[in-house]
Write a structure and sequence with these properties.
- The protein contains 4 helices and 20 strands.
- It folds into 2 domains: about 140 residues, Immunoglobulin-like (Sandwich); about 100 residues, no CATH class.
- About 25% of the residues are buried.
- By secondary structure, the protein is mostly beta strands.
- The chain is about 15% helix and about 35% strand.
């Protein structure tokens, strides 16, 4: 019985491999219906090529002439192609490897599909009109090329993409790009250049420009600013020591335009957010008194399971020697 079962399984496996081999071998010779939507045979053959990857698209010689205008570039929104234009917002996503990318799609009339293969070249640079935009690794990902197969959109056009055009690893909210997308087939080249802003799925918000940083599995928005002392919980004539006392302060970010982005309700403990424990020796060393300021970072958490607030004074808070 075991021998019979093994023979049966072996026969079934061989039959499966034979069927699969026949399917792959027949990929290049799928029958073509010349009346199908007026498309030529090579385009129909490529519909199999896309399913039998890798195939011809990566090995063709593409038109290398100066590209003409006339390429539509955009994205699918609720199943509908929406073209991008100058001044538009373009949504970025994070890929499974952690990179931040935009995902353009190109569209041309169906009559331009040719043999169905297209190479999509993407190039981007920081928009010179916005030199103070968020920093990132854009120069490391200045261009990329993708081999694609056209597919019909049902409206007399063909589309290719989306292609995963990486901009960097960090969130590029608010980044302004000069974006050029070029499509090349074996017989023509078309291109489109536009100036766009990169946003997340929620759209653009000024507060997205506040820098963020990961810390022990938590994510914090970092506000750099100044703490101005309001009270020091020690007598003015207290002798220098390593005893710590509370220094109360008010906080003001260095960039006043992001002050509205500080939600003190996030801190969970407003009293702690305006007080730092410092030794008397360090207070003396920093020359702190009521009305004096020192640099400090406020970090507001955006990860629910993490502490909602961190205050990082940029002065020594303990262990300062007392002068003789």
């Amino acid at each position: 019985m075991r021998t019979t079962t093994r023979n049966f399984v072996t026969t079934a496996v061989l039959a499966t491999w034979a069927a699969l081999s026949a399917l792959l071998a027949g990929c290049d010779s799928i029958p073509v219906d010349p009346s199908d939507a007026g498309m030529d045979a090579p385009f129909e053959e490529l519909e199999c090529d896309a399913a039998c990857w890798p195939r011809r698209c990566a090995y063709l010689e593409y038109d290398d002439s100066e590209p003409l205008d006339g390429l539509e570039v955009g994205a699918m929104v609720d199943g509908v192609f929406v073209p991008w234009g100058d001044g538009d917002d373009v949504t970025y996503v994070f890929g499974f490897q952690g990179g931040a990318m935009i995902q353009p799609i190109v569209r041309v009339p169906e009559a331009m599909a040719g043999d169905g293969c297209v190479r999509v070249d993407v190039a981007h640079a920081r928009d010179d009109a916005f030199p103070d935009g968020p920093e990132g690794e854009l120069d490391e990902f200045a261009s990329a090329s993708f081999f694609q197969a056209f597919r019909r959109d049902g409206n007399g056009n063909v589309i290719a993409g989306p292609v995963d055009d990486q901009l960097g690893w960090n969130a590029p909210d608010g980044l302004r790009l000069a974006l050029t997308v070029t499509a090349r087939t074996t017989t023509w080249a078309r291109s489109r250049t536009m100036h766009v802003r990169v946003v997340d799925a929620d759209g653009f918000q000024e507060c997205d420009l506040v820098p963020s940083q990961g810390l022990a599995g938590c994510t914090y928005r970092v506000f750099y600013g100044q703490a101005t002392v309001t009270t020091i919980d020690a007598p003015e004539d207290a002798p220098c020591s390593n005893d710590r006392v509370a220094v109360q302060y008010t906080f003001a970010p260095n960039d006043p335009t992001i002050a509205a982005c500080i939600d003190e309700g996030v801190t969970g403990t407003t009293g702690f957010a305006h007080s730092v424990s410092m030794s008397l020796g360090c207070i003396a060393e920093a020359g702190l008194a009521i009305g004096e300021s020192f640099p400090i970072q406020w970090r507001l958490g955006s990860t629910p399971s993490c502490p909602p607030f961190e205050a990082w004074p940029d002065v020594t808070i303990g262990g300062c020697p007392c002068g003789e």
